[in-house]
Design brief:
By secondary structure, this protein is of the alpha+beta class. It contains 12 helices and 10 strands.
């Protein structure tokens, strides 16, 4: 029997996140998004407030100081609520979950897991960054095209008990702000990504690692993306995650289900766009009555409502399945593609229905549309997600 009733804990977490969004986050987010310099868009205040409320460490084990909630549906519910304010806030619970899964027991010792998870829980500003994308490698990291010339070009060459890393990363989320980086390198240039890639844990400030330009994005501006440069960066071999040349295998094993949380935070953007346009249509009078009473408008709103409900049902279904059923390689990329596409459609339609106000900076629709378009480009983009689904059919 399928039961979609939320537990008392889930209801309480949802209300905690909703109150934070409505009472604290929304005004701050709106102001930050308008800053012309991307370096001024990130808020340490919001991050630390999310830490105080327990959202950042929600998925980490209690023995390290975390919330101890690994249930994917519960974390997804929190991501949706935070996404109503901004996609970047919804990335905060996802960050803690990434740390948990990247440091899974198959690739990290108990000592490494305890060290970094405890430090993460103790420091309210601690974030993790996954450094994979490069100027000449993006989608072919994720599929991957297993040819020696494709994928990650950043090299890691063993010299005794150390590896020397050289290369450049770009579009890296939380770069410059994060304290710990999972860096993907090519340790065997004669093989493809699946058996020639190795990942390392590199703390911020390590010699040979520096940061380049901050990327100026059209939306999703409260999450910082920046270049990382490695110039003869020497790291001890014990910082390697998993066996040498199996970095991509380790990542897939650790993060196979976390993409569903990107779909969950889409729900927040779509819901915000829908709620804003319903309020607008109730208060905007044209032709002698609120435009929500015009049949054409009412039908558009009904379609948006149904899409939103379908998105949430699919997210919860797949979120539950990743915890309780054998892995289905079609499930997560499929729901991600579905939700990102429909989020953009809902945000686009909301901006259209708002007329001239839909493109004005002082209304919410323009920002929501920019954010909805940007999230379509996460994790290789939606064509890559469709390729994954098709290859598993």
């Amino acid at each position: 029997m399928v039961d979609f009733k939320l537990s008392e804990e889930q209801v309480a977490l949802r209300q905690l996140a909703r109150d934070f969004v409505n009472n604290e986050a929304k005004p701050i987010v709106a102001d930050l998004d308008k800053n012309p310099n991307p370096e001024d868009c990130v808020s340490d205040v919001l991050l630390r407030r999310c830490s105080e409320l327990g959202f950042r460490t929600l998925p980490l084990p209690e023995k390290y100081g975390g919330g101890g909630i690994e249930d994917t549906v519960t974390i997804g519910i929190v991501c949706e609520e935070l996404g109503v304010a901004d996609l970047s806030l919804a990335s905060i619970p996802v960050n803690g979950r990434k740390l948990l899964h990247m440091l899974n027991p198959n690739v990290a010792s108990d000592e490494v897991r305890e060290k970094w998870m405890k430090e993460y829980c103790d420091d309210p500003g601690f974030m993790v960054s996954i450094a994979m994308t490069e100027p000449d490698s993006g989608g072919d990291n994720i599929l991957p095209y297993d040819a020696p010339g494709s994928g990650v070009r950043t090299t890691a060459v063993r010299e005794g008990d150390e590896f020397v890393i050289n290369g450049r990363k770009q579009f890296i989320a939380h770069a410059g702000n994060a304290r710990l980086y999972v860096v993907f390198t090519r340790t065997d240039p004669n093989k493809g990504m699946s058996d020639g890639c190795t990942s390392f844990l590199v703390p911020k400030g390590h010699p040979g690692m520096s940061f380049g330009r901050v990327h100026d994005k059209m939306g999703f501006r409260l999450l910082r993306n920046q270049e990382i440069i490695f110039d003869d960066c020497r790291v001890p071999a014990e910082w390697m995650l998993g066996p040498e040349n199996e970095g991509l295998v380790s990542m897939r094993a650790g993060l196979r289900s976390d993409g569903i949380l990107n779909a969950a935070r889409c729900l927040g953007v779509a819901r915000r766009a829908f709620e804003e346009i319903v309020d607008w249509c109730k208060n905007r009078v044209q032709g002698g009555k609120p435009i929500i009473e015009h049949q054409a408008i009412a039908c558009e709103l009904a379609d948006m409502h149904v899409k939103l409900q379908a998105m949430r049902a699919l997210v919860w279904n797949v979120a539950w399945s990743v915890d309780h059923e054998p892995p289905d390689p079609k499930a997560v990329p499929g729901v991600m593609a579905f939700c990102t596409e429909n989020t953009f459609e809902i945000a686009h339609k909301a901006a259209e229905l708002a007329g001239g106000a839909g493109v004005m900076k002082d209304s919410p629709f323009e920002k929501l549309l920019r954010d909805a378009f940007c999230i379509k480009h996460l994790d290789g983009g939606n064509y890559i997600k469709r390729f994954k689904v098709a290859s598993a059919l």
